[in-house]
Each structure stands twice: as C-alpha cells, then as structure tokens.
Amino acid sequence: MASSSSFLLAMAALAALLAVGSCSTLMTWTIGKDSTSTRLVLVASADVSEVAVKDKGATDFSDDLKESPAKTFTYESKEPIKGPLSVRFAVKGQGYRTTDDVIPADFKPGSVYKTKEQV
C-alpha cells in the first residue's frame, strides 16, 4: 500500500510542476500589417501596457506607444525607424521588462519575433 501512495504522491508532484511550467510562455511581438519605414505596429502576445521602443543608437526609449485595439501598440516616427529595436513594456501585474534588439532592422509586416522574457 505504501508504494501505491508514494506513486500517487509522485504523480501529483509531477502534475503540479507541469502546471506551473505551462503557465509562463515566451513573449512575442508580431509586426502589424500597417507597419512602414516610419510606422511600427506591434501586436503583443500577452497583456502588456506602457510599451516603448528604442532605435539603434538612441540613448532613451520613446514615449509610450499608443495602444489601439487590445495588445496592439503603434510607434510613429518622423524619420525612418532604425533597427534593431529594443522594446520596454510592463506586464500587467508583473512589472517592467526590457528586451534588447528584439525587432531587426529589416522588420516586415506579419513577422513574429520571440523574446527571452517569460510572461
């Protein structure tokens, strides 16, 4: 009987580990179809807020991007956007994250870029 209960306990522990591990996924950014050389539309894979980007060579992040439909953020620039771009964002209820050089210089609408950040 002891081996049966030990087996059940081990299976319960394994199920709990798998459940916790599956709760977090890697953050991805999809480039929106309306993106151009001066307009970047980012679609987040998670509930985020306060998204900002930094062009290559810039010292500061942009002001927060405008959020349109849920999880969609737009960056408008007067000059052509210079990649690779770094993205700073707040995960709702989890604080700020920054991913350096996540959007390449030759980004194209429809492309999906994964980060190393779990959300």
Record keyword descriptors for this entry.
Immunoglobulin-like; 119 residues; 1 helix; single chain; globular; 8 strands; alpha+beta; three-stranded antiparallel sheet
Summarize this structure briefly.
It is found in: Secreted. With 119 residues, this protein is α+β, with helices and mostly antiparallel strands.
Task: Give your account of this protein's structure.
The chain is of the alpha+beta class. It has a domain at 26-108: Immunoglobulin-like, CATH 2.60.40. It contains one helix and eight strands; from the N terminus they run αββββββββ. It has one helix at residues 2-22, and strands at 26-31, 39-44, 48-54, 66-67, 72-76, 85-91, 95-103, 112-118. Strands 4-5-2-1-8 form a five-stranded antiparallel beta sheet, with no helix packed on it. The protein has a three-stranded antiparallel beta sheet with strand order 3-6-7, with no helix packed on it. β1 and β2 (39-44) form a beta hairpin. The longest helix is centred in the first third of the chain and has 21 residues, at 2-22. The chain is globular. It starts with a helix and ends with a strand.
Helix run count = 1
| Uncertain spans | 13-22
Assign an overall shape.
globular
The string of secondary-structure elements, in order, is HEEEEEEEE
Query: Briefly, what CATH class of the domain at 26-108?
Result: Mainly Beta
What is the third-level CATH name, the topology of the domain at 26-108?
Immunoglobulin-like
Strand content: 35-45%
- In the CATH hierarchy, what is the superfamily of the domain at 26-108? Expansin, cellulose-binding-like domain
- What order do the strands of the largest sheet run in, or round the barrel if closed? 4-5-2-1-8
Write down the Rg: 19 Å
**How widely separated are the two ends?**
41 Å
Count of extended strands: 8
User: Any guess at the CATH architecture of the domain at 26-108?
Assistant: Sandwich
Q: How much is the average pLDDT?
A: 84
Largest sheet: 5 strands, antiparallel
Pairing-aware structural class of the strands and helices?
alpha+beta
Helix content: 10-25%
